[in-house]
Specification:
By secondary structure, this protein is mainly α. 54% of the residues lie in helices and 0% in strands. Helix 5 crosses helix 6. Mean pLDDT is 76; it is low at 97-112.
Amino acid sequence: MLVTATVQGLQPTTINELCRRFEVSRRTVKRWVAFFEAAYPTTIQWRRLRGQVPIEVRDKDLPCSLLMCFFKYSKTTEEGIILCLSTLAKSEFEHKKGGFELVTQKLPTSQE
């Protein structure tokens, strides 16, 4: 998921470097990208989560937009990654006092 989020919008040479660094083929990365672009938004897991995440998390930008959302509300990058992966595994947000519950609150509109 992290490689997939990272390659969104990158140049082919950068993608090649990521493939070398994480020891995965371009073909594998293309499959991961295709999954998040086409298949994942139609899954029951995503449909359950879709109503709980802010509008800024766009289906067409998965998984990058979801990771960015978690980074925004986490104290560290590592915490954001763990929360994102945990959420994807459970198909629901964990609500904890003073924690990540901010993501599920209604965001203000531009007119407010």
